[in-house]
Design a protein that fits this description.
Elements lengths: L1 H21 L3 H24 L5 E2 L6 E2 L2 E2 H21 L4 H26 L2 E2 L3 H28 L1
Antiparallel strand pairs: 1-4, 2-3
Length: 155
């Protein structure tokens, strides 16, 4: 588990360094990253504490509340990369870009969740709650894009 966590941290750091070097305004990119991280933590913490959809394995090294810090840091990478990929195909059609980006993130998160359950990094209490978790991820993805898009209109 420690190798997985070190690798994940390494990938997040590489991703950040790459985008900081490419962005015209690295501060704005950092603001988007922090905003999505905060939104992801809020969603995850709410899903765990209030709705009891799932819980993370205690084998994670560092937690913020009930959510591993690395999970909080991976969400912005996942969302931003989905958005970047979609923008390559639908650059002139912003509505399609947002819908496709949300779909990419939703599919990716669903795959990650399935692998995490199989590997024992995430525990789902019952199959009934799986639908709720997927619904929550869908809502989270939509609102994250909406919020980041709103920020991008301001600047």
């Amino acid at each position: 588990m420690i190798i997985f966590q070190i690798t994940t941290l390494f990938l997040v750091v590489i991703y950040l360094l790459y985008w900081f070097s490419r962005e015209e305004d690295p501060g704005f990119f950092l603001l988007k990253f922090i905003t999505i991280s905060a939104a992801s933590w809020l969603l995850e913490e709410t899903s765990i504490l209030i709705y009891h959809f799932y819980q993370y394995s205690p084998d994670w090294y560092l937690f913020f509340g009930h959510v591993p810090v690395l999970v909080i840091l991976v969400w912005p990478v996942l969302i931003h990369s989905g958005w970047e990929l979609a923008s390559q195909f639908f650059n002139q059609y912003k509505l399609y870009q947002h819908v496709v980006a949300a779909l990419i993130v939703w599919i990716d998160a669903s795959l990650i969740e399935s692998i995490s359950v199989k590997e024992g990094r995430l525990y789902l209490p019952s199959l009934d709650n799986r639908l709720g978790t997927i619904l929550i991820y869908t809502i989270f993805t939509f609102y994250s894009f909406l919020f980041v898009f709103s920020l991008s209109l301001i600047y």
